[in-house]
Amino acid sequence: MKLNKIALAIIFVLPILSVAGGSEHHDISMSNSDFFYRVLNFTIFAGLIYYLVANPIRDFFKNRSADIANRIKEIDAKLQESKNEVKFAEEYLAKSQEKAKEIIADAKEESVILAENIAKKSEEILLALEKQLEDKMIVEKKKMVKTTIKKLLEDGIESSDITIDGSKVVSLVSKKVA
């Protein structure tokens, strides 16, 4: 690197020293003017600038192109990943909708079964209540018969009625019951 700096210093200083000459005035023509030296200096300057700046600029643009390419690849990968996620979400949505339909169908079936079971249990309870009512009516009827017979026996039979035969007693009892 030092060698490059020394070479550059010589290239810049040498033209300056060669141009810095005497103070004589000459007729200026194309052949004895400093135009060629200026073109030479400009060419050397342009070459040095190109030599010093070309590689970093080229590297910068190469790196920039590579960065852009990498970003494009990353964006493409993210885009593909997003597409895959959308596809997965759509599949999951379809499965969820099917599952929801199954759940609704199962719920309807269960509600029908539960309604039938409730109806059956209600009928059984109703039949049991009717049976209990019938049993209570029979018991109450027996109580009434006993009470009536007891009352009849206490109030209805006198000493004059004792000569009555069995058929007469039955008719008396049936009259009181009716």
Written account of the structure:
The protein is an all-alpha fold and 178 residues long. Among the domains are: 39 residues, no CATH class; 41 residues. Helix 1 packs across helix 2. The longest helix is centred in the middle third of the chain and has 122 residues. The radius of gyration is 64 Å and the shape is rod-shaped.
Question: What fraction of residues sit in β-strands?
Answer: under 5%
Q: Report the biggest beta sheet as strand number plus sense, adding barrel if it closes.
A: none
Cα Rg: 64 Å
Report the uncertain regions. none
* β-strand number: 0
Q: What overall geometry do the principal axes of the alpha carbons give?
A: rod-shaped
| Head-to-tail CA distance between termini | 142 Å
Order of helices and strands: HHH
Structural class: mainly alpha
Query: Helicity level, as a percent range?
Result: over 70%
Number of distinct helices: 3
Report the average pLDDT across residues: 82
Structural descriptors:
single chain; 178 residues; 3 helices; 85% helix; 0% strand
List the helices and strands and how they pair.
Blueprint: H1 2-19, H2 35-156, H3 166-177
Helix pairs in contact: 1-2
In short:
Among the domains are: 39 residues, no CATH class; 41 residues. It has three helices and no strands. It is rod-shaped and about 190 Å long.
